[in-house]
């Protein structure tokens, strides 16, 4: 540790820290525009000037390394005057259009101008004006406001891995641009809006909609992918206006994917806001009472094993638990949360988790991607892989991939092959990547749903597991065999045991007429055309998507922003979301609907409040016993288990992996209802589906 | 404000010809393979000169920058940044001859205004940055060319014409128009920056002084 004296207060900081970090450690706030904790240091805004003893002039603290015994002064007359001068220069070409600027109220420049700005301008000449750039459907630009801090350039280059923004030209003519007028191709482009300290980059879909101080802010969890990104839902007057990420270094750092951020207009369209019942082929809206009674009548006399439920990708654990309890009380074990037909090793929790945790990626030193395309399946996780790739330096983090990348991965990937036969080659040492994994201290294998949704998934998983054991990826200290999920509800459902019982039907056989009454809990991505006409379909969900059209009875539920819910992310981290707004019309929280129906049916579920339900969930699986709302992660244990011989699990099939996500912007009912996402899909095009062929 | 970098009409493709390839091989041999991005400036210059050779207009189109980015394994954006930063790289088409008049203080004191005026008269160009109607000349204002002892300077493409005045400027342009390139260097009777008319000091040999 290095001892630095900040304004007379001694603080100890690690060697190599910057003066700015030392000041932060001492509790001094240093104004800054270009410096960002998660980006490289540029040192071009000069706002963070401080005085250092025996330095001839003020120094930019963000790029000034600390030395032992260094004395830093953050609030002297010299510092104040220097910062005022910097602010005057920054404001010379900045338009004073705060009243019509979307950043107003949460603008770093505005805030700092209160501290260091002058009341009058000495600049009498014409201000510089810069033409706005078209960066695609998500990011709006007002380039005249740009102060050229280059945070956006560094973000797109370093974090997103899509170096499409740059500072071109020089001096007064310098501009941030893509140069060739193209839309940003990153799935993380929304974060540019957050990193921009001024109003140069703002959200295009919500331009001129609201002011930052008008929002009611609610902590929540993103459900667009299985990462469980921590978000804050910002609502005004019962309407979700904006979603921004929260900082959680163990999950999403401070990034959020574009789908999670910009799908919000989908929450207002195609919503189910009242119960519907189909009578003689014609659907008509009814009251809750009539709907539940009609449903109870249909249930009457149907044996339990002729009733089944399939859960979708966006469900909270509470509703999953309620529907499972209801069906079990009716004597049914026809439950399935795998609407994509995936296979998991459910013998232990570790069989379906991202065992190393998201932050474990930072420790990995070799990576094998098996049938996964993280850039589309979890863009923020992909950024974490890229961060590790960049930090490790040239060749420090070799990444092999089995499957065909359907887009640029944003890091160097060695494509080892496109089918599972490559796994056999690695296992036998025929493939050179075997050596890479063998030499790595913390090798990591990520198995995706391109592999797990195949018929030979057990064999692929068994091969991966054998490989993991062989290369030391599963030890008491390091658990490197990971499953990357694509559905936010999946791990929670698996933790609750939302799977077919010993004699229960799985999703496919339920769809093919294995049950008389099929309850779809937000399950829209199943093959609905397979359902025979005589099957009675109950749809409990929030969007009038494909399944609602087939349904015989529609119960309107709440979307993820409209209910308090528990979600378990791909790494097994149990996280809670709070209700930001109320569901539209007569729609209700899903578990309450199920609870109400159980009473009508005469099988009343043993809980009346959310707390009771959650206590019950904790009995079903202790992972749900969270104390005080803290986010706990209970890792599974694979350490002691022996690797099963791959022969038991069937044979590997030679067919190549196919990407599970064809179009990143259209993967669930909310994003399919969103006009913003539809436009993104149009602009960025569908990922070439033929890539696998 | 003019956006100087706005791409003009761009060709559809760009391929380095054999002469350029030979130069590139020489340039790349100076850098280790993993640091080959350092060759971006020489390569931009090679591309610009090839365009001058082939099309008569020495500039770097976007496709050429893309080709360079691919060749050097760097993001295209990084090449755009470099090319747009340096004024010596032309990111839009220019005339056959690039008249670069230095107007920094020493040249200005020695009459660079006359040179500019002569250029304007001889080519019909009104302002800096314009190309003459016949497409032969582009006149730009440049900062100090580092040849102040021979001020004022008119740089035509890669050659310095030194000790200029209005009359000599007109002559040089007339020669260029006729398709000939005058010998670069001082336009008056002197060797590089030695005094006009020959040496003025150390006229006698050192042995003669001693006697």
TrEMBL record, chain B:
<dbReference type="InterPro" id="IPR002023">
    <property type="entry name" value="NuoE-like"/>
</dbReference>
<keyword id="KW-1278">Translocase</keyword>
<dbReference type="GO" id="GO:0022890">
    <property type="term" value="F:inorganic cation transmembrane transporter activity"/>
</dbReference>
<dbReference type="GO" id="GO:0003954">
    <property type="term" value="F:NADH dehydrogenase activity"/>
</dbReference>
<feature type="binding site">
    <location>
        <position position="148"/>
    </location>
    <ligand>
        <name>[2Fe-2S] cluster</name>
    </ligand>
</feature>
<keyword id="KW-0001">2Fe-2S</keyword>
<dbReference type="GO" id="GO:0051537">
    <property type="term" value="F:2 iron, 2 sulfur cluster binding"/>
</dbReference>
<keyword id="KW-0408">Iron</keyword>
<dbReference type="GO" id="GO:0031967">
    <property type="term" value="C:organelle envelope"/>
</dbReference>
<dbReference type="Pfam" id="PF01257">
    <property type="entry name" value="2Fe-2S_thioredx"/>
</dbReference>
<keyword id="KW-0520">NAD</keyword>
<comment type="similarity">
    <text>Belongs to the complex I 24 kDa subunit family.</text>
</comment>
<feature type="binding site">
    <location>
        <position position="102"/>
    </location>
    <ligand>
        <name>[2Fe-2S] cluster</name>
    </ligand>
</feature>
<keyword id="KW-0411">Iron-sulfur</keyword>
<dbReference type="GO" id="GO:0031090">
    <property type="term" value="C:organelle membrane"/>
</dbReference>
<dbReference type="GO" id="GO:1902494">
    <property type="term" value="C:catalytic complex"/>
</dbReference>
<feature type="compositionally biased region" description="Polar residues">
    <location>
        <begin position="202"/>
        <end position="211"/>
    </location>
</feature>
<keyword id="KW-0479">Metal-binding</keyword>
<feature type="region of interest" description="Disordered">
    <location>
        <begin position="180"/>
        <end position="211"/>
    </location>
</feature>
<dbReference type="InterPro" id="IPR042128">
    <property type="entry name" value="NuoE_dom"/>
</dbReference>
<dbReference type="GO" id="GO:0008324">
    <property type="term" value="F:monoatomic cation transmembrane transporter activity"/>
</dbReference>
<dbReference type="GO" id="GO:0098796">
    <property type="term" value="C:membrane protein complex"/>
</dbReference>
<dbReference type="InterPro" id="IPR036249">
    <property type="entry name" value="Thioredoxin-like_sf"/>
</dbReference>
<feature type="binding site">
    <location>
        <position position="107"/>
    </location>
    <ligand>
        <name>[2Fe-2S] cluster</name>
    </ligand>
</feature>
<dbReference type="GO" id="GO:0022804">
    <property type="term" value="F:active transmembrane transporter activity"/>
</dbReference>
<protein>
    <submittedName>
        <fullName>NAD(P)H-dependent oxidoreductase subunit E</fullName>
    </submittedName>
</protein>
<dbReference type="GO" id="GO:0046872">
    <property type="term" value="F:metal ion binding"/>
</dbReference>
<dbReference type="GO" id="GO:0098662">
    <property type="term" value="P:inorganic cation transmembrane transport"/>
</dbReference>
<dbReference type="InterPro" id="IPR041921">
    <property type="entry name" value="NuoE_N"/>
</dbReference>
<feature type="binding site">
    <location>
        <position position="144"/>
    </location>
    <ligand>
        <name>[2Fe-2S] cluster</name>
    </ligand>
</feature>
């Amino acid at each position: 540790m290095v001892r630095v004296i900040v304004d007379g207060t001694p603080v100890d900081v690690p060697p190599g820290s910057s003066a700015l970090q030392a000041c932060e450690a001492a509790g001094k706030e240093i104004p800054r525009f270009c410096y960002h904790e998660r980006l490289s240091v540029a040192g071009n805004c000069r706002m963070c000037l401080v005085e250092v003893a025996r330095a001839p002039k003020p120094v930019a603290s963000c790029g000034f390394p600390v030395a032992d015994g260094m004395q830093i002064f953050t609030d002297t007359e010299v510092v104040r005057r220097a910062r005022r001068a910097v602010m005057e220069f920054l404001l010379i070409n900045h338009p004073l259009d705060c009243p019509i600027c979307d950043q107003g109220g949460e603008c770093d420049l505005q805030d700092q101008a209160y501290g260091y700005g002058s009341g009058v301008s000495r600049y009498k000449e014409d201000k510089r004006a810069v033409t706005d750039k078209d960066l695609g459907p998500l990011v709006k630009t007002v380039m005249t406001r740009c102060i050229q801090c280059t945070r956006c350039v560094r973000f797109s280059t370093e974090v997103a891995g899509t170096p499409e923004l740059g500072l071109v030209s020089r001096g007064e003519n310098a501009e941030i641009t893509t140069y060739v007028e193209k839309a940003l191709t990153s799935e993380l482009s929304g974060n540019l809006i957050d990193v921009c300290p001024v109003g140069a980059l703002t959200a295009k879909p919500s331009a001129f909609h609201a002011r930052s101080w008008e929002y009611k802010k609610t902590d929540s969890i993103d459900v667009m992918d299985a990462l469980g990104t921590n978000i804050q839902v910002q609502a005004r007057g019962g309407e979700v206006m904006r979603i921004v990420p929260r900082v959680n270094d163990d999950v999403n750092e401070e990034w959020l994917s574009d789908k999670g951020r910009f799908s919000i207009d989908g929450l207002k369209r195609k919503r189910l806001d009242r119960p519907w019942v189909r009578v003689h082929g014609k659907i008509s809206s009814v009251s809750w009472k009539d709907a539940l009674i009609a449903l109870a009548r249909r249930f009457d006399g149907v044996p339990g094993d002729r009733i089944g439920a399939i859960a979708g990708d966006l469900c909270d654990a509470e509703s999953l638990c309620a529907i499972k309890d209801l069906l079990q009380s009716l004597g049914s074990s026809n439950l399935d949360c795998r609407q994509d037909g995936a296979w998991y090793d459910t013998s232990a929790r570790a069989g379906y988790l991202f065992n190393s945790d998201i932050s474990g990626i930072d420790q990995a030193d070799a990576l094998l991607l098996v049938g996964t395309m993280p850039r589309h399946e979890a863009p923020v996780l992909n950024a974490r892989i890229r961060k590790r790739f960049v930090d490790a330096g040239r060749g420090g983090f070799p990444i092999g991939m089995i499957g065909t990348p359907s887009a640029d991965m944003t890091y160097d990937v060695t494509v080892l092959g496109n089918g599972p036969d490559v796994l056999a080659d690695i296992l036998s040492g025929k493939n050179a990547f075997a050596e890479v994994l063998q030499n790595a201290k913390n090798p990591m294998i990520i198995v995706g749903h391109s592999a797990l949704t195949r018929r030979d998934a057990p064999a692929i998983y068994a091969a991966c597991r054998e490989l993991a054991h062989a290369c030391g990826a599963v030890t008491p200290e390091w658990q490197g065999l990971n499953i990357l999920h694509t559905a936010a509800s999946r791990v929670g459902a698996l933790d609750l045991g939302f799977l077919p019982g010993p004699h229960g039907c799985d999703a496919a056989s339920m769809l093919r007429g294995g049950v008389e009454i099929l309850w779809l809990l937000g399950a829209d991505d199943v093959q609905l055309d397979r359902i025979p006409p005589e099957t009675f379909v109950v749809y409990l969900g929030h969007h009038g998507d494909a399944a609602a059209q087939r349904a015989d009875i529609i119960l309107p539920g709440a979307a993820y922003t409209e209910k308090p819910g528990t979600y378990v992310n791909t790494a097994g981290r149990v996280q809670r979301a709070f209700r930001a707004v109320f569901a539209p019309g007569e729609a209700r929280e899903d578990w309450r609907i199920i609870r109400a129906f159980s009473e009508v049916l005469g099988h009343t579920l043993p809980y009346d409040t959310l707390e009771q339900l959650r206590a019950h969930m904790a009995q079903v699986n202790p992972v749900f016993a969270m104390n005080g709302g803290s986010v706990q992660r209970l890792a599974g244990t694979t350490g002691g288990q022996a690797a099963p011989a791959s022969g038991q699990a069937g044979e590997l099939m030679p067919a190549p992996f196919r990407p599970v996500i064809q179009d990143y912007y259209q993967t669930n009912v909310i994003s399919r209802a969103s006009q913003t996402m539809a436009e993104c899909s149009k602009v960025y095009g569908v990922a070439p589906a033929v890539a696998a062929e | 404000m003019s956006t100087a970098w706005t791409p003009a009409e761009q060709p559809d493709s760009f391929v380095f010809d054999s002469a350029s390839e030979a130069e590139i091989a020489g340039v790349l041999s100076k850098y280790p393979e993993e640091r080959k991005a350092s060759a971006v400036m020489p390569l931009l210059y090679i591309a610009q000169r090839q365009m001058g050779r082939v099309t008569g207009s020495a500039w770097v189109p976007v496709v050429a920058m893309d080709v360079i980015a691919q060749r050097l394994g760097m993001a295209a954006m990084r090449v755009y940044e470099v090319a747009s930063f340096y004024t010596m790289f032309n990111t839009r088409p220019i005339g056959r001859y690039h008249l670069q008049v230095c107007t920094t203080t020493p040249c200005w004191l020695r009459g660079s205004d006359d040179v500019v005026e002569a250029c304007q008269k001889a080519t019909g160009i009104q302002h800096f940055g314009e190309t003459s109607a016949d497409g032969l000349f582009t006149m730009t204002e440049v900062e100090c060319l580092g040849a102040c002892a021979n001020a004022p300077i008119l740089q035509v493409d890669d050659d310095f014409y030194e000790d200029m005045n209005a009359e000599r400027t007109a002559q040089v342009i007339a020669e260029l128009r006729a398709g000939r390139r005058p010998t670069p260097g001082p336009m008056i009777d002197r060797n590089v920056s030695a005094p006009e008319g020959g040496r003025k000091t150390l006229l006698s040999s050192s042995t003669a002084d001693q006697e």
